[in-house]
Design goal:
Length: 436
């Protein structure tokens, strides 16, 4: 708790509450690490879909569908949470839904592609809701000048959670393999382990985190799907007055698309292109999380000192280097270098992006505008992995070309980052809130 310095927090915010907030990153990181990255992704392609040529495209399509749902609904849900001062209540609902649907993945067996797709769409949708809602608490907890390191605290603790979940799963998988238990039997157990850790850690968040917002009963109330679409359109139109926030959204669509490729396809690439075994892949992802922890925590302090924009730019250069090394790797040792750099860049880029959104969003509309930020990164999560999947399909499985092309997304993100003026954007956000 000593790492959570009180001078970084807003008046009235206690260190234990920030710890509770950061514990949600700890809770949900196991889902990303075990389900989306290290275990279930590769099992879906190789075990459930039998290594079919369309398997990678099916996996990326399932994730893309969940991201599309989140894109269209999260701004409206965020506006509802702002209106009712109910971000924490909504967070508790989506957490329960994600835990249950993650546990249900344990019932998916070989050839049950349709069931796997449905459960991935459901679980990843609710995971994404929780990620957005948690991020919207950041500006309420941290002072503007300390938002980078507080965001870094959360991300770094998240990677510890991911390592814990993966470490327990790895220990079980190694035991299961020593007993000649097949993947169709040991992978389901890892889903139950992940869901259990998610549930237990999230209880800490729900016990310690407070709702700081005030209800806004006079705000318009969109009804039904049509109302959600109208809310999304209105928010997009309203955001145009915040030039730098809108520029950040465009930048995020580009570079987060590349990050999404790393998260969703690292295990598939390691196993099918480089030749990693299942347990080797899990060790690889474990070390990647260790590097990401260092990147998120260390760069959290660095970005407060040198500026979020410069810090993010440095990580985007690192991401481009990662893509080149991964595409050229012919041995496991070479690919380990790519994974180490990716881990450091992943933690720092995720932390910097969340902090920048917190600074540029109007303080009285955090749920709504973090919903829009989620819209951007989920659009990226469709563009990146789906493009990767299409390239592999059209080139008869050439994943090296697909990973090399991902560097273009990071380059585009770097170009779109350059015009952002953090000071101008922060002043615009504060001025808009003072007029309401």
């Amino acid at each position: 708790m000593a790492l959570f310095s009180a001078d970084a927090l807003n008046p009235g915010v206690r260190k234990r509450e920030v710890f509770g907030w950061a514990m949600y990153d700890f809770a949900n990181s196991g889902y990303t690490t075990v389900v989306i990255t290290a275990v279930f992704a590769a099992y879906f392609v190789g075990g459930i879909a039998g290594g079919a040529a369309w398997a990678t495209l099916a996996w990326t399509s399932a994730l893309s569908l969940s991201y599309a749902i989140v894109m269209l609904t999260m701004p409206g849900l965020g506006a509802w949470a702002d209106r009712h001062a109910a971000k924490k209540k909504l967070l508790s609902w989506v957490t329960v839904a994600c835990v249950i649907s993650t546990a249900a993945l344990a019932w998916v067996g070989p050839d049950q592609v349709a069931l796997a797709v449905v459960l991935i769409v459901v679980s990843n949708t609710f995971f994404s809701y929780g990620e957005s809602l948690t991020a919207s608490f950041l500006p309420e907890l941290a002072k503007p000048e300390a938002m980078g390191r507080v965001s870094g605290w959360g991300w770094s603790l998240g990677y510890i959670g991911g390592m814990l979940a993966l470490g327990i799963c790895l220990g079980y998988v190694l035991w299961a393999q020593s007993q000649n238990i097949p993947a169709a039997q040991f992978v389901p157990v890892t889903m139950l382990i992940t869901a259990s850790i998610y549930a237990l850690a999230a209880l800490v968040t729900l016990a310690l985190l407070k709702e700081h917002a005030q209800a806004q009963p006079n705000r318009p109330r969109p009804a039904g799907l049509t109302g959600q679409m109208r809310q999304l359109w209105q928010t997009l139109q309203e955001a145009r007055q915040f030039k730098d926030f809108s520029q950040l959204l465009a930048c995020s669509v580009a570079y987060q698309g590349g990050v999404a490729v790393a998260i969703t396809l690292a295990a598939i690439y390691a196993e099918q292109v480089i030749g990693f075994e299942k347990q080797e892949t899990m060790v690889l992802i474990f070390v990647l999380n260790l590097a990401a922890f260092a990147g998120a925590f260390g760069f959290g302090y660095v970005q407060d000192r040198i500026g979020h924009k410069i810090a993010l730019g440095i990580t985007l250069l690192g991401w481009m280097l990662t893509c080149v090394i991964a595409a050229l790797s012919t041995t496991k040792g070479q690919f380990w270098w790519a994974a180490a750099i990716a881990g450091i860049c992943m933690g720092s880029s995720q932390s910097a992006g969340r902090a920048m959104a917190g600074l540029l969003a109007p303080p009285d509309r955090l749920g709504q505008y973090f919903g829009l930020w989620t819209f951007a990164i989920r659009l990226a999560s469709i563009v990146g992995p789906l493009t990767y999947g299409l390239i592999t399909w059209l080139t008869d499985g050439n994943q090296r070309l697909a990973i090399a092309s991902t560097a273009v997304l990071f380059l585009l993100g770097l170009v779109l980052l350059i015009p952002i003026d953090m000071q101008r954007g922060r002043q615009a956000a504060l001025a808009a809130s003072s007029l309401r």
